[in-house]
Specification:
This protein is elongated. 72% of the residues lie in helices and 0% in strands. With 67 residues, the chain is an all-alpha fold. It has one domain.
Amino acid sequence: MTQQPDLPWISGFWRRIVALIVDSILLALGGFALGVVLESVFIQLGSWSVFVGFFISLGYFGVMNSR
């Protein structure tokens, strides 16, 4: 009988869902705090401020989901 090498454990479906919810709550709280501090800047940016949030989320998930 051959022994299989230890493979990295991959998290299950429900644990990933909970992690996504936690990440979303953290991003929402951070976005709210950023919105309170930089409200006038975001008002001047208008609809372009959505892209600021998108790129913050993209960077967050890119760093947190990488290894």
